[in-house]
Design goal:
- By secondary structure, this protein is of the alpha+beta class.
- The chain has helices at 19-26, 46-56, 84-90, 130-133, 139-142, 148-155, 177-186, 192-214, 216-221, 225-240, 302-320, 330-346, 358-361, 443-454, and strands spanning 62-65, 71-73, 76-77, 101-108, 111-118, 158-161, 171-172, 243-244, 249-252, 273-278, 280-281, 290-295, 394-397, 400-403, 417-420, 423-427, 432-434.
- A hairpin with a 2-residue loop joins strand 2 (71-73) and strand 3.
Length: 461
């Protein structure tokens, strides 16, 4: 262990500091209060989470890092988001968590003491220049952060300076597969507080979709209308929460046939569809994940309606299959049966048997949702993909049809149409509750909703 100070992160073009300036900067500072954002809303629920983790690894030291900054270009870093497991166990979600580490120290045969190692505030005294010179962590560069004692009060976790951590041995969530798996599986069932956060994320996302529809006239007039849509949604996400939970997909026309189209550099054409897949991430880092496919003219053409209504029927079948005790894969199978039968009725497939429909559907019809948009991804197959649904799990149902523009198995009028409808649901004692039902899904509902917003009125509910 060492108490040596960390090197300053300064730029190659920074001005030198004279001894006189260093002395002048060190004195005459009033007490600095914590910012309003220094809260830990999850404090009441994190002790139970740590206790569940403790029970799985008796007598072992567990190390859960928040993560480090990643360089975007030269001396500019990507915006920091703590690792989801760290946030889940500590309730700390801010950008000031860079480099911090939670250690679960064995305190008996069946218990652990949590110790949070964090970067202290830089003292404002002569010889300590980090508070005004350090570009990565200095308060005058990135803002005030809680000190060790303040963080202890905020979290209820014993805290210590990061310099005291040293190089502990133990299970590290960044490299230990078993620990990462357990941390994923412990998050499969959401507590009441988590469901509330996810509903908040969904509600903000609904508002973002309404913003997008209101902005369609300006987006249609812009040469990169997809970017305009992305920006409009990002404004809502950043104003109401931490930002978007993932890169927004604003895919117009044939771009919608690319599952993860995030270039968003295309023009919008009034006779095409816009596939918008977007979600607001709350300040507590829970994200929504919603997709709507919208007619840019405000009304579906007959062929667009044909494709849309098949996808909607598939989604309805998938959602109807959600209930405690059902297999996780049941809702996907139900949705794909509808898709395959529809494609056979269109004459695209010879019959509905087999898996040839996957040429047009490409991927699964949903996933777990929570702190990560594809939540609990390191859980074992028997606990997740091949597992059984439980009350409190939150997931998406998102069947789609992606009819590639160059696919010669399709009639010409179907080529270049991509449709996905995605909603977020929580498993209840008797079935599932639709969390994103404030956004219409039927053809008539979508057209009425768009018309009201484009006319400047409130969204119909």
């Amino acid at each position: 262990m060492t108490d040596a100070p960390s090197p300053l992160h300064i730029g190659s073009h920074d001005l030198p500091v004279s001894p006189e300036l260093s002395r002048f900067m060190a004195g005459s500072w009033a007490p600095s209060p914590l910012p309003d954002s220094a809260r830990v809303p999850a404090r009441a629920v994190t002790p139970a989470r740590r206790a569940r983790l403790s029970a799985r690894f008796p007598g072992e030291r567990l190390i859960v890092p928040a993560g480090e900054l990643k360089v975007r270009s030269n001396d500019c870093d990507h915006r920091f988001r703590p690792h989801s497991a760290y946030a889940w166990l500590t309730g700390l979600t801010g950008e000031d968590q860079v480099g911090h580490v939670l250690v679960m120290e064995p305190s008996g045969p069946h218990a652990h003491e949590a110790v949070l190692y964090l970067r202290p505030r830089s003292p404002r005294r002569e010889g300590d220049e980090a508070f005004y010179r350090d570009r990565r962590h200095g308060e005058f560069w990135v803002g005030r952060r809680p000190d060790v004692a303040e963080t202890e009060r905020l979290t209820g976790i014993r805290c210590a300076p990061l310099e005291q951590l040293g190089s502990p041995t133990g299970r590290d969530a960044g490299s230990d597969g078993e620990l990462a798996t357990v941390l994923s599986e412990l998050r499969l069932v959401k507590d009441v507080w988590e469901v509330e956060q996810l509903q908040l994320a969904v509600d903000h996302t609904v508002a973002g979709f309404e913003d997008v529809v209101r902005a369609l006239p300006r987006a249609l007039a812009h040469p990169r209308g997809e970017r305009w849509i992305e920006g409009v949604f990002a404004l809502r996400a950043r104003a109401e929460g931490n930002g978007t939970g993932y890169e927004t997909i604003a895919a117009a026309g044939a771009h919608a046939c690319a599952l993860h189209w995030t270039r968003n550099d295309g023009r919008l054409e009034a006779d095409e569809l816009l596939l918008l897949d977007a979600g607001v991430e709350t300040d507590t880092l829970y994200t929504a994940d919603v997709t709507r496919t919208l007619p840019l003219s405000g009304r579906f053409s007959p062929v667009q309606r044909q494709v849309y209504e098949l996808v909607l029927a598939a989604q309805e079948a998938g959602m109807a299959a959600l209930r405690p005790g059902a297999s996780f894969r049941d809702f996907h199978r139900a949705a794909m049966r509808v898709i395959a039968e529809g494609l056979a009725q269109w004459g695209v497939l010879k019959d509905a048997r087999g898996d040839l429909h996957r040429r047009y559907t490409l991927c699964s019809s949903g996933h777990m949702l929570g702190l990560d948009v594809h939540d609990c991804a390191k859980a074992r197959a028997e606990s997740y993909l091949d597992g059984i649904l439980e009350e409190g799990q939150v997931l998406t149902v998102e069947p789609g049809l992606y009819l590639q523009p160059d696919d010669e198995t399709l009639p010409a009028e179907l080529r270049g149409i991509g449709v996905r409808i995605e909603d977020d649901l929580v498993i209840t004692a008797t079935g599932a509750r639709l969390m994103s039902g404030a956004l219409p899904r039927t053809v008539a509902g979508v057209e009425e909703w768009m018309a009201a917003l484009l006319d400047g009125g409130p969204a119909p509910h």
